[in-house]
Amino acid sequence: MEFREKHIKQFEAIIDESPFTLVGTASEGEETVRKIKALKELPELVVITLMVDHGLDGVGTVKKIRQEMLGVKMILSYTIDSRMRLVEGLKAGAIERIKKPFDNNDVIKRLTKVHLTKSTDAQGGFFRNSIRLAKPLPITFAKAGLFAKKHDGRTLDISTEGCRLQATIPLKRGTEYKITLDVPNQGKFKVHGKIKSVTHDKIHSTYEAGVEFTQINEKDKEKLNLYIMDEAERV
């Protein structure tokens, strides 16, 4: 496990009071890889600090371990300042994250969650299946093309791949829309989406549509994913 020096004692104290066993620590990525290879058996879990003062950082360490030690499950520890790099590490193959400064209960909860995850389920990384957040967000949408009329609606749930849209106007399967998502604390994201399915609630005179995002800026996608991850933890 790799941590900056100031966090090692805190983490060791948490592990000492848990069912888990700490088999080693390291100060940067290459050292982490060397120490893992020197063990008689591969560890089940490796907790990797996202940002380090020198040497191989967390994202590089995740990539190296995934290439050379298939089956090891990886967790990233991060701070608020390193959240954007966190997405890169999750894409690279880490399957969970732990925020610093550490909270004892949170650390044990996340280690247990990863322990119960099958190794075969972990190889695709966090982004193998996108998280769907069941929380309404206000949106505006208009048919793709020039001078199309804008309409108001809301999402009933959302992921980085699409959303379930509720509106008061008729929606037709196969129609493409330009959509503006109003994401709290992140701003407004413009995406293109295609209606894949539609249901009509006659009692409330509303339409619900499954929308697949066909175009979304990668930076906006990363910010949207961070928002969804943060909100999903609060639910």
Task: Describe the overall structure.
The protein is an alpha+beta fold. The protein folds into two domains: about 5-130, Rossmann fold (3-Layer(aba) Sandwich); about 135-235, predicted glycosyltransferase like domains (Thrombin, subunit H). About 30% of the residues lie in helices and about 30% in strands. The protein contains seven helices and nine strands. The protein has helices at about 5-15, 30-40, 60-70, 85-90, 105-115, 120, 220-235, and strands spanning about 45-50, 75-80, 95-100, 135-145, 150-160, 160-165, 175-185, 185-200, 205-215. The strands form two sheets. The chain has a six-stranded antiparallel β-barrel with strand order 4-5-6-9-8-7. The chain has a three-stranded parallel β-sheet with strand order 1-2-3, sandwiched between helices. The chain is elongated and about 60 Å long. The mean pLDDT is about 85.
Task: Name a few traits of the molecule.
235 residues; alpha+beta; Rossmann fold; Thrombin, subunit H; 2 domains; three-stranded parallel beta sheet; 7 helices; 9 strands
